[in-house]
Amino acid sequence: MKSVEIKNLNIGFNTESGFRQALFDVSFNLYKGCMSALVGESGCGKTLSAMSILNLLPKSAVVKSGEVIFQSKNILIQSSKELQKIRGEKIALIPQDPMTSLNPLYTIGNQLLEVIKIHQNLEGEEAYKKALDALNAVQIPAAKERMNSYPHEFSGGMKQRAIIAMALSCNAEVLIADEPTTALDVTIQAQIMNLLKEIKKERQTSILLITHDLGLVRDNADIVSVMYSGRIVENAPVDEFFKKTSHPYSIALLDSLPNNRNRKLDTIKGQPPTIHETIAGCRFHPRCKKCMDICTKKIPSQFSVGKEHFSACFLNG
Ligand code: SF4
Prior knowledge:
The protein is of the alpha/beta class. The chain has a domain at about 1-90 and about 170-300: Rossmann fold (3-Layer(aba) Sandwich). It has helices at about 45-55, 80-85, 110-120, 125-135, 145, 155-170, 185-205, 215-220, 240-245, 250-255, and strands spanning about 1-15, 20-30, 35-40, 60-70, 75, 90-95, 175-180, 205-210, 225-230, 230-235, 305, 310. The longest helix has 18 residues, at about 185-205. The protein starts with a strand and ends in a 6-residue tail after the last strand. The model has no long low-confidence stretch (mean pLDDT about 90). The structure holds iron/sulfur cluster (SF4). Iron/sulfur cluster binds near residues 282, 292 and 313.
């Protein structure tokens, strides 16, 4: 069942040299009890797409067209009062650096209680019990004592757990996890991803995982959308994607993944274009080993290549 529909987003920025488009017709859905991954190199537009779900776009961003539908409303045109109710309470963000969301001056317990007071309108014992339940749900040991700890007394993994606890204490229906494990070592990374998978299953939460790491996608996500230079170039259920990777950019990303399919480790030549560069046709064509004449002139549409599997490449047309 769909929980969020991102429809044909065209977003850009007004710069000194004029309007520069950063997202081109970006569409994807989030589903209840499902982890969707948005994957691509830095600057491809995945964080901008994710932030549009919270309507937390940079001030200089201009939404040319498109909608983000949540509970039959377009988030992009809601009032700030309405957005305040949605953010944190219904849709919560797990950032790459938990310290951007935690206040170093207050204990973890105080911060949890504040969130519960604002979003659940609960105080006193009832709020305290809810906060404690949330810390236990994210498997923070000695949760009662940890209520009195300050963020600096928590490890990186524990801080991420505390952020997830805040989302759980408000019963958030959608979690946006923006590179949530990048700063953590591999063991802790696996623990946080397992925790997210448990939450997804037990609470039927929709999770959007933003990552550059296809290995993380393979091990954790259910659906994957690959982004390149502001466009979704491939979209598929994860099993299907790894069995039948279609888009040359996705294949190149996979080839640059260590230990994948015993293929030779390869790199993608060149750099993704910046928003200041105008590229005719397929935006991947200057780096694509399979580039054809048509690719430099026309923009490929999304072609069906399997069940719920789409690829924006002329080779699939
Ligand atoms: Fe490569 Fe052409 Fe496909 Fe773009 S459309 S990915 S340039 S083959």
